[in-house]
Amino acid sequence: MTHTEDSMKADRALGIAAILAGILIAFASSHVQLLPGSTAVSARFFPYLLAAILSAGGLTLILWPGAVPARDVVTRILTPSALMVAATFSIYAFTFRYMDFRLGTWLFVLITMWILGARKPLELIITPIAVALITFYLFRYGFTVLLPTWN
Amino acid sequence: MELIGLDTILGAISVVSQPSVLMWMCIGVAVGLIFGASPGLTATTGVAIAVPLTFGVNFEQSMALLLGLYCAGYFAGSLPAILINTPGAPGNAATALDGYRLARSGKADLAISLSATASVVGGIFSIIVLMFAAPQLSSFALKFTSVEYCVLGLFGVSCVAAVSGGSMAKGIIGASFGMLLATIGIDEVGGVTRFTMGMPALLGGIPLIPALIAMFALAELFTQAANPRSDQALPGQQRYPLAGLPRFLGKHWALLGQSAMIGTFIGILPGAGPTIASWIAYGQARGRERAGESDEDAQARGVMAAESANNAVTGGALVPLLTLGIPGDTVTAVLIGALLIQGIDPGPMFIFEHEDLFAQILVILLFSSVLFLVITLLARGLLPRIVTIPPRILLPIVAVLCATGGFAINNATFEVGLIAVLGMIGYVLLRFGVSMAPVVLGLVLGPIIEVNMRNALIANDMDFTVFFTRPISATLLAVLAVTLVVAGWRSFHKR
Known about the structure:
The structure holds two protein chains of two kinds. Chain A is an all-alpha fold. Chain A contains seven helices and no strands. In chain A, α2 (10-29) crosses α4 (70-77), α5 (80-94) runs antiparallel to α6 (101-115) and α6 (101-115) runs antiparallel to α7 (121-142). Chain B has 23 helices and two strands. Chain B has helices spanning 6-16, 19-37, 43-50, 59-76, 78-84, 93-104, 108-141, 146-157, 160-163, 168-182, 208-225, 245-251, 253-268, 273-286, 295-324, 330-341, 350-353, 355-379, 391-410, 414-431, 436-459, 466-469, 471-494; strands spanning 185-186, 193-194. In chain B, strands 1-2 form a two-stranded antiparallel ribbon. In chain B, a hairpin with a 6-residue loop joins β1 and β2. In chain B, α3 (43-50) packs antiparallel against α4 (59-76) and α3 packs parallel to α16 (330-341). Chains A and B meet through α2, α3, α4, α5 and α6 of A and α10, β2, α11, α19 and α20 of B.
C-alpha cells in the first residue's frame, strides 16, 4: 500500500465533519422552543431535515472519497500567507467600530501588502494612503455612509 | 391582448427624447452603474436615495432617473462579479461563477460584453412582455400560493447539480450548510428564535449581501493570498472584437430567450426577485454538458443565462406593480413611493387611465437599457485592467471594499465581523473542494422553501398531497422530475 492509499482522504475528513455537524445541529434543533399547538412541521422540522441531508452527504463522501489526502488539504489551508491575511482581516473587521476608518484601513492595507510580498517603498507609501482616503471619501460623501472616525 | 397604439408609443418617444429627460436618464444610469457595481450597495439603495429627489421634477423626468438607475443597477452588479469575484448584488452571484473564470483566463472583456448584451436582451424581452401581456400575466401570478412558491424553490435547488463543481455530495453538503445558515434567527412562521447563540444581532438572520461578499470574494481572496506570486502568471487580458458578439448571440439565441422568459416570469411573482431567477436560468444553462463544447463557450452560456434572467426581472417586476399595485421586487416597492409623489396610484386602472404614462415607462426602460449597454461597451476596454493589477495591491483593495461594503448595508459593524467569520469558513470549505455556489444557493432558497412549505401544509391541514394536486405545482414538479431523471440518466451513461 502506498503512502497516498494509506493516509486519510480529504473527502473522508470532510464527510466525518459533516456527520458531526449534522449530529450537533440535530441536538441544537431539539432545544429549539416549540410553541403550544405546533404542528409536525414546527420550527425544528427543517433543521432536522437539513441535518439528515448533511449527514447523508457526509456518509457518501466517507464511502466514496476522492483521491486527495487530507494532509495535503490541511497543508494548503495552513499556508502562512493565507493565514496571516485572514488574521489581519479579522483584526481589521473586529476593530472596525473602534478605529478611525482612515487609520485602520491604512494600517490593514500596508500590512496585507507586506504579507503579499510588496517591497517597493513608493508602492507601500502611496497605495495604503490612497486606498484609505479614496474609500473613505467615496463612501462618506458619495454614498453618505457614516464610516467610523475619531472626530 | 392589450395593445398600445402606435401613436401613443411615438408620443412617448417624443416625450422621452427631450434633453431634460435624457439628462435625468443619464444621471440615473450613471448612478445605477456606480451603486450596482459597489459591493454592499444595491439598486434598491440607489432608488431609495433617489426617490426624494423626484419631488421637484415631472413624471417623465422622475421615471427617467429611477428606471435608469433600476436597469443599470441590476446589470452593474455583474461587473465586480466578473472582475473580482464579488457580486454587486445577490442577483449577480450566478454571474460570478463563469464570469470570473473568463476574467481569470484573460477574457474579462468578453465576459463584460456578453453580460451587458444579455442584460439588454433580457430587459427588452421583459419590456415586450410588459407591453403586450401585463394584465393576463399578473392574474396568472396571483394564482401562486405557498405551495407553488415552495415548489419553485425546490426547482431552484435542483441547480445544485450544475454548480457543485463536480462532486454532487459536496454540492449537497454546501447547499445544506447554506440552508442551515438561513435558519438562524427568528423563525418566520412560528416566531421562535433558532441558533442565535444569544446574539441579538443574529435575530434578523444572516444577511444575504455580507454572506455573498464573504463566500465569494473573501474566501477566494484568502485562497489567492496562499500563493500571491502565482497570479503574476495570469494571461494578459484579450480585447474581444465587438464584431464577434453577434456570433455568440446568434449561437445562443434560444438560451437567451429561455433565460429572459425565466427572469420575466419570476419577476412577475411578487417577492421572488432576481436572485432565484438568475440561479434557475444558470442551472438550466449549465446543468447539461455539451459534447465538444469549449470552456469559453460553456462559461459564456453561464454568464449570458444569469444576466439575461437577472435583467428580465426588471420588466417582469413592473407587471404586478402597474396592473395590481403589488411590487414584484424590492425596487418596485420603493417605486410605488415615487409614483405616489407624482400623484399616480399604481393599480388595476393605471394602464387604462394613463396609457401615455405607461408607454413612457416602456420607452424609458428601453432607452435606459440601450444607454447602459453603450456606456459599458465603451468602457469595456478599461474595466478588465482591474484584473491585471498585481495581487499584492488588488487583494488588499478588495478586502477593504468587502469590509466597507458590509458596513454600508446597515451602517453596522456586526456585518463586517460576520464577513470575516464566514469568509474563513468559506476558505476552509473551498480548500476541501466545496464550491461556494451551492452554499449561496442554499442561503437564498432555504427560507423560500421552508416558509412556504410550512405555510402550505398548515393551510392545507398537513396534507402533503396538495403539492401534487394543484395544477401549477404539479406541472412544476413534473418538469423538475423529468429534469432530474434526464440529468441522472445522462450522468449514468457518461460513466
